[in-house]
Amino acid sequence: MSEVTSSSTPTHAPQNVRAWLAAAQADVLFEATSLNVSDGQPATTHIRAALEHGAHAITANKGPIVHAYRELRDLAARQGKRFLFESTVMDGVPIFSLFDQMPTVRLKGFHGILNSTTNVILSEMEEGLTFDEAVKVAQTLGIAETDATHDVDGWDAAVKTAALITVLMDLPIRLEQIEREGIRDLTPQALRNARRDGWPFKLVCRAQRVGETVEATVAPEKVLSTSPMGKTSGTSSYLHFETDIFPGLTVTEENPGLYATAYGLLADFVRAVE
Questions:
Q1: Which of 3, 83, 136, 234 might form a disulfide with 76, Cβ 3.0–4.6 angstroms?
Q2: 40 backbone φψ class: left, alpha, beta (φ>0; ψ -120 to 50)
Q3: Is 160 an active-site residue?
């Protein structure tokens, strides 16, 4: 068998991110690899390399926020560059930027619904689909991966909760410190009964400051159907903050499109280079 080589194929393609940064003379790195719950790699290494190269680093990956936020934040400051990550929670909604506009405000706690995949699955199961059938619906919509484990077992919601705690409360937290329960044990019958009674199940994230520590959970809860969380369905998200100045501050994202996360990356790019 003969081998055909295209003349347009680079003969000296960069073999790693540092080589690529040098060859491209990059000013900005967009990091969008898949989430690695255990250690945040390879995203953390990519972002560190970008900042050390002298480029701004923008990511949609939650892993580096949970596993290396302070290191990367401080490295960016020393380099005079930006490390931005607005798309990591609630797509492109300016959650982190919101608190940038409220200096000295102390976040006491928050609760909300941050995983749209489980929202869709629970809604479909309320209509009578099995768990597996509901997961396939979420996959068809493009919001669930082929392996939906991170969503249905609560990992995605836990990582988002940890990211909010780490950045907005300035309290680093390990994922194992968050009590986590997914939705696998909920049956269609239990979900239909709960909806009929006016208390549907939702996968709820909670965090509360306790002295100089924080208590956090991710678990299915029954919520009043007429409450803001009870009305959060489909691909929508809901996040309620409790601060020392504002007793209640709520952000709701209603059924975002596929471009919402991309917008968050674009908005971070504008902030970095303006």
A1: 83
A2: left
A3: yes
Instruction: Give the single-character DSSP code of 66.
Output: H
Q: Are 143 and 117 in contact (CB under 8 A)?
A: yes
Match 């998200």 to its residue by tokens.
Answer: 237
CA-to-CA dists, residue 183 to 162, 243, 256, angstroms: 19, 30, 23
Domain at 17-92+260-273, CATH class: alpha beta
Q: How many other CB atoms are found less than 10 A from the CB of residue 60?
A: 21
Q: Give the largest CA-CA distance in the chain.
A: 72
Rounded to an integer, what distance in angstroms lies between the CA atom of residue 260 and that of residue 258? 6
Please tell me the CATH code under which domain 102-253 is placed. 3.30.360.10
Report angle CA 165, 246, 231 to the nearest 5 degrees: 75
Domain boundaries of the chain, sorted by first residue: 17-92+260-273, 102-253
- pLDDT tens digits, 31-51: 999 999 999 999 999 999 999
- Residue among 62, 81, 160, 202 flagged as catalytic: 160
pLDDT digits (tens, 9 = 90+) for 88-133: 999 989 999 999 999 999 999 999 999 999 999 999 999 999 999 9
Whether pTM > 0.85 for this model: the answer is yes
